[in-house]
């Protein structure tokens, strides 16, 4: 009876009992470190160990159980109290499901015989050819900029040029200033006078301030959160948009990447900085139902409840890459976008279809989400992405 | 229950803070183990109030550090009073004072501007209550710095040496969870999550804080609030809103809930346009009616 050991107050038995409780918690996916267990032993020494509720809440306080885990904790604690713990197997394995080790699919390499799970009517929805014409321009690069993403035949050189250009674009992002003041280095001429460091330096010159030290706003990148639609109707654009995001992520360390079609997948950990091709292959194994249908509202709602508390903030910018062709309830989409908007600096919606001058956002989902979007922009070629950059800066 | 916790609970109540036993347990453990207490919960559930009441109970000063983005060490810990130092230096120049004595004088406590953290550490005559409010608004760098201060309760000022706290302060940190706190900081504290009050507790809170609300009004208000919070709202009303609402109703000389008056004073409870729009007058009337009925 482990609970019994607590009640008898045998100090020698307290620590092993708590260590076992701690490992039970960990087995059920509740993080509890040795440090927390030490805190818990200390707390138990201070309270009435015969009072079940008091022991329960004291352990919850000392083990720092987050609100989300209270239900699980209460269940485990009552088992622990009666001494019946450790028997039931953990029903919530905290590890993510093992990654499928299969051949990197060829979905991303534009294999004409790619697996598709989309319905025929969805294809009908997709205008597909919403490209701007490849107007003649002064330089090959300018031509490249106008080339629409869904032009499926790209040569290796064009791809490389695109990657370089994207990487350069991304670099321009990483110079945002925060509100924090930090010491300037070198001999700055701008910034706010910093008396402390100025007088410190003056010691070396006999008390005369010869060089002013200054402080300036710290460079702090905004946190960018990308939500990429990988459904069938977005198929033609996904790879290029993902490449843009990955190139961005190389420069912007605080970029997060999620993919969604019927469910939301956090891709943050699968992204390898600077290795766009390797990453794309990895992503292909992670995203289930690649090129399938969309449940836009549901996916965004999952994002809002599971990831937004962690990622939201005054320096967060959420970018949704989707055509807004949704098979779910528009009201759900609207409320999800609204919730996201409430917690972040800006919501940008990139819609490749917008590049077509004839397009109007009348898809039900898109129309519902529109009031909560700060910037609704096309993303059908590099030029349009370049124009987007000011929106990604706080 | 441990007698100390029972006593603390009663004291909190006497001071006007109706707490759950878990809240009192957390306060007691934090005091006994000298660990900071991290309090999380929705806006308006009484996180800041807890610190104020604690200061009143202990009979000490409440030192408050409001966090914001860009908060730096100069604002949080200490800074030298440079203009005064410069003036003193110029005066000394004219008089030809002894250099080393002057230096010792210039870098003494006299010219040190104590900011909240240092003030809590140097507080004499018993520990102070240090409230670090909305720590989630400060940036990660400040959080790391705070970790250092909170673990040793000592500060090293190059010109003065190390200042160690005679009486380590009681530290309460609050967070609205606009961003996830670092694990290191979380692990160093004890953790208390404050929920919205239950019906019984809310009634007691209204009675304690707004004694002018008579009769069945507190029950009706509490039931109305429970019904309101059960809906999905962008910003569910907290205890602070409940009390505002009660006071508003009393100012309008109401002794029981009335659908019209509630609709007009709903702005005390719902502070979001979408929430207000989502609640139609008919729904308000239904909620009010059910809050009134349940009593009889």
What secondary-structure arrangement, pairings included, does this model have?
The complex is a heterodimer of chains A (394) and B (296).
Chain A: H1 2-8, H2 11-27, H3 34-44, H4 52-62, H5 70-82, H6 120-125, H7 140-146, H8 156-173, E1 177-183, E2 192-193, H9 195-202, E3 214-219, E4 223-229, H10 235-251, E5 255-260, E6 264-266, H11 276-286, H12 296-311, E7 313-321, H13 330-343, E8 344-351, H14 364-369, E9 375-378, H15 382-388
Parallel strand pairs in A: 4-5, 4-7, 7-8, 8-9
Antiparallel strand pairs in A: 1-3, 2-3, 5-6
Chain B: H1 3-14, H2 21-33, E1 37-41, H3 47-58, E2 62-66, H4 73-76, E3 78-80, H5 82-95, H6 99-106, E4 112-114, H7 116-122, E5 129-133, H8 140-152, E6 154-157, E7 161-164, E8 170-175, H9 183-188, E9 190-194, H10 199-209, H11 217-230, H12 239-251, H13 259-265, H14 273-278, H15 281-293
Parallel strand pairs in B: 1-8, 1-9, 2-5, 5-8
Antiparallel strand pairs in B: 3-4, 6-7
Helix pairs in contact in B: 1-2, 10-11, 10-12, 11-15, 13-15
């Amino acid at each position: 009876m482990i609970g019994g050991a607590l009640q008898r107050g045998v100090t020698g038995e307290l620590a092993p009992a708590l260590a076992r409780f701690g490992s039970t918690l960990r087995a059920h996916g509740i993080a509890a470190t040795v440090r927390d267990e030490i805190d818990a032993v200390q707390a138990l020494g201070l309270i009435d160990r015969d009072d079940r509720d008091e022991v329960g809440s004291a352990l919850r306080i000392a083990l720092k159980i987050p609100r989300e885990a209270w239900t699980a904790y209460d269940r485990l604690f009552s088992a622990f109290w009666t001494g019946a713990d450790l028997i039931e197997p953990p029903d919530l394995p905290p590890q993510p499901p093992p990654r499928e080790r299969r051949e990197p699919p060829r979905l991303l390499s534009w294999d004409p015989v790619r697996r598709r799970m989309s319905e025929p009517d969805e294809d009908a929805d997709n205008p597909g050819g919403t490209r701007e014409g490849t107007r003649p321009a002064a330089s090959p690069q300018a031509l490249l900029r106008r080339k629409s993403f869904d032009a499926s035949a790209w040569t290796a050189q064009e791809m490389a040029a695109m990657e370089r250009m994207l990487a350069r674009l991304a670099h321009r992002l990483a110079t945002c200033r925060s509100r924090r003041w930090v010491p300037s280095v070198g001999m700055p001429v701008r910034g706010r006078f910093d008396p402390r460091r100025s007088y410190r330096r003056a010691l070396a010159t006999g008390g005369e301030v010869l060089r002013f030290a200054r402080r300036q706003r710290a460079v702090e990148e905004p946190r960018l959160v990308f939500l990429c639609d990988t459904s069938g109707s977005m198929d033609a654009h996904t790879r290029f948009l993902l490449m843009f995001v990955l190139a961005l992520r190389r420069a912007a360390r605080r970029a997060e990447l999620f993919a969604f079609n019927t469910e939301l997948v956090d891709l943050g950990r699968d992204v390898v900085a600077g290795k766009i091709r390797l990453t794309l292959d990895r992503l292909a194994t992670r995203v289930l139902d690649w090129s399938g249908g969309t449940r836009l509202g549901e996916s965004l709602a999952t994002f809002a409840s599971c990831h937004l508390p962690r990622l939201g903030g005054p320096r967060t910018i959420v970018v949704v890459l989707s055509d807004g062709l949704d098979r779910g309830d528009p009201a759900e989409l609207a409320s999800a976008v609204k919730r996201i908007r409430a917690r972040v600096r800006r919501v940008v919606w990139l819609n490749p279809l917008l590049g077509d001058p004839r397009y109007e956002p009348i898809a039900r989902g898109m129309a519902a989400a529109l009031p909560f979007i700060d910037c609704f922009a096309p993303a059908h070629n590099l030029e349009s992405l370049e124009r987007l950059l000011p929106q990604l800066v706080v | 229950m441990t007698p100390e916790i029972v006593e603390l609970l009663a004291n909190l109540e006497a001071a006007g803070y109706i707490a759950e036993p878990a809240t009192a347990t957390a306060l007691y453990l934090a005091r006994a183990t000298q660990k900071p207490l991290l309090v999380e919960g929705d806006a308006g559930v009484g996180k800041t109030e807890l610190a104020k009441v604690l200061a009143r109970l202990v009979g000490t000063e409440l030192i408050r550090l409001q966090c914001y983005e860009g908060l730096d060490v100069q604002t949080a810990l200490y800074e030298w009073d440079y203009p005064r130092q410069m003036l003193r230096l110029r005066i000394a120049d004219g008089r030809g004072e002894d250099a080393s004595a002057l230096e010792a004088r210039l870098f003494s406590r006299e010219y040190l501007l104590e900011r909240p953290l240092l003030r809590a550490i140097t507080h004499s005559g018993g520990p102070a209550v240090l409230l670090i409010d909305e720590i989630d608004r400060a940036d990660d760098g400040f959080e790391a710095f705070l970790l250092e201060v909170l673990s040793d309760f000592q500060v090293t000022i190059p010109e003065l040496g190390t200042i160690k706290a005679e009486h380590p302060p009681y530290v309460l940190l609050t967070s609205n969870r606009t961003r996830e706190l670092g694990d290191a900081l979380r692990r160093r504290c004890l953790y208390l999550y404050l929920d919205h009050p239950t019906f019984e507790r809310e009634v007691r809170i209204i009675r304690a804080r707004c004694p002018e609300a008579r009769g069945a009004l507190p029950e009706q208000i509490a039931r109305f609030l429970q019904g309101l919070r059960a809906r999905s709202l962008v910003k569910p009303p907290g205890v602070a809103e409940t009390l505002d609402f009660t006071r508003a109703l009393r100012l309008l000389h109401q002794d029981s809930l009335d659908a019209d008056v509630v609709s007009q004073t709903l702005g005390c409870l719902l502070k979001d346009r979408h929430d207000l729009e989502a609640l139609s007058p008919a729904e308000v009337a239904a909620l009010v009616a059910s809050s009134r009925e349940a009593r009889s």
